[in-house]
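Progress against Task 2.4 (sequence-to-structure conversion) is shown through the following example record, which the project officer requested during the mid-term review.
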Amino acid sequence: MTTPLIVLAALTIFGGLLNLPYLTAAMAEANHDHAAGIFLMLEQWLEHSIASFELTEEGILSMPKTPVYLSLLVAGISTALAVGGLILGYLVYRGRPRTYREPDRLQRTPIWWWAALPLNSLYMKGFVPLFNRFSVWLADKVDWAFWHDFVHDRLIRDIFITGAEFSANVLDAQGVDGLVNGAGKTTQRLARGLRLTQTGYARTYALAVLLGAVGLLVYFIWMAG
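Structure tokens generated for the chain above:
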């Protein structure tokens, strides 16, 4: 956690520096001086993008400009609380604990509200068990039973396997193979039938020509009549 905390602290300091008030009257005058006194750079830069609405006495919504001046009362209270927290943290811990095996020094500090409010017991006996049960429910029911068993196995896998079996056993085996094999078998039957007419005897071919001529003569006579 040390490195992320260092990065967050650096960004916090940078954000605070962006909002430093103007230190001289010349700086304030160069940036459109305000009647309220101390200016804030960041608020003035964001003045036209941070809009605020309020209902006037006439019932009309107006959009006043974002305040760009410093409230010394709010700034003083915030600074005092921040500095007080730093001092209290230093006095309580002073670089301890250094490892996870060392107990929290705040547990041994005689602070009245810590003894009056069982924060540690409430957290360990209330929040942690609820969080653990909720995590187990998410892991067992939502992730495993629903997402893995139902969605993956029942919907995705079973539907895919059913479609693949239907394509292989019905469409391919009975449809595609049936058409291909049926065409081949039909051709074989026709070839076997035609092969009977190929005897190699001239009398057989003459008989076929005679039968064909008789058939044509009958057809023409029937059409003419």
